[in-house]
């Protein structure tokens, strides 16, 4: 059996998330159009991360969803900006979470169990993982490692191989880092990620379009129009100001 491709894995993951987040939208054919080149995001000020923390998260998310021949990855999509904005708001402070005890290491099938808020967990995990990297790789922090070394470090995190005070590294990786990376890659661009709608273009998702009548009976065909964000931005017009697409 051949290994699943990056696109097939992201497609199955994304449409579960998108279906839950946007239940009113019909699921059309998941056939991705050709992905155009996307410029590297311009560095910006962060509300939560320090520059060093942002470099860590940018590098880590870029290994979870890497740039390859099938299209741009988490770096180009600005996933670090999405996560920064989330941690700087109610999500980061766990405002709507039940945060009372008891606390313990998560068993399989359980959700987040730490007493740390997401913001506290990220800060602790970044420091602990950078310390682990410096002890393992001749003083180099995570952002300075080779891609293979970064992958090995993330694998250690995923298998509870890194000691993070207050939260297991497996819990952090599964419940926060990987989950937030996927959310940032496939969320509406309004929230800072999915820049130029690269995630939606990869999987052929039409976004927040309100009219699908002309295409309801063509489930075996790729959706022909570019995606639209909640604020009304069209991916094609974002890249081509002369576009006449008005659907």
Task: Describe this protein with a few key phrases.
0% strand, mainly alpha, 247 residues, 9 helices
Total number of β-strand segments?
0
- Helix content estimate: 40-55%
Return the structural class.
mainly alpha
Average pLDDT over all residues? 79
Spans with pLDDT under 50 lasting ≥5 residues? Answer: 19-42, 235-247
* Distance, first to last CA: 41 Å
* SSE ordering: HHHHHHHHH
Strand fraction band? Answer: under 5%
Number of helices: 9
Largest sheet: none
Q: Provide the domain count.
A: 1
Q: Identify the quaternary structure here.
A: single chain
Question: Compute the gyration radius: what is it?
Answer: 19 Å
- Which shape, going by the Cα principal axes? globular
What is the fold's blueprint, element by element?
Elements: H1 6-21, H2 51-64, H3 74-77, H4 79-87, H5 118-136, H6 147-158, H7 169-186, H8 198-203, H9 235-239
How would you characterize this protein structure?
With 247 residues, the protein is an all-alpha fold. The protein has one domain (6-239). The protein is built from 9 helices and no strands. The longest helix has 19 residues, at 118-136. The radius of gyration is 19 Å and the shape is globular.
Short description:
Helix content is 42%, strand content 0%.
